[in-house]
Amino acid sequence: MRGGKGAEFALCLDVGHAISPDAGAEDRDPYRWLESLAPQAPIIHLQQTDGRYDRHWPFTAGSKSRGIIDADKVLRAIRTSGAADTLLLIEVGHPFEEQDDRVWQDVAESVEYWREALKNITSNEGAR
């Protein structure tokens, strides 16, 4: 691009993508991914998953009981990584046939779950 700045590019990690059947247990650990790679990947997609498939489940009571992604552990791993500035994006997906009210409810519950986790980590950092 002449005379201007080119397109910006950033890496994105997705906590639900650590699922390769050929990978060992350590390589399928999303928290290990975050601790190792968050400084190089300032965007993180947040989805609930069972660790077997790329589920894109919301962070509702039902999916959290079946899932492996815990907000406190995610935030701790990012902090441990030394990442300076991280954008967290909730990436939940529903079948297109799902009722709109259910989708809104699941997204709202997911947002509240992460809002509380972020509030907790912020207040815990202030206590140090």
Give the topology, please.
Layout: E1 12-14, H1 30-37, E2 43-46, H2 61-66, H3 71-81, E3 87-90, H4 100-126
Parallel strand pairs: 1-2, 2-3
Helix pairs in contact: 1-3, 3-4
Short description:
With 128 residues, this protein is mostly helical. The protein has four helices and three strands; from the N terminus they run E-H-E-H-H-E-H.
Whole-Å distance between the termini?
47 Å
Following the backbone from N to C, one meets helices and strands in this order, namely EHEHHEH
Characterize the overall form: globular
Radius of gyration (Å): 16 Å
- The unreliable regions are none
Spatial ordering of strands, largest sheet: 1-2-3
Number of strands: 3
Strand content: 5-15%
Structural class: mainly alpha
Number of helices: 4
Instruction: Report the major sheet.
Output: 3 strands, parallel
Instruction: Please tell me the overall pLDDT.
Output: 90
Helix content: 40-55%
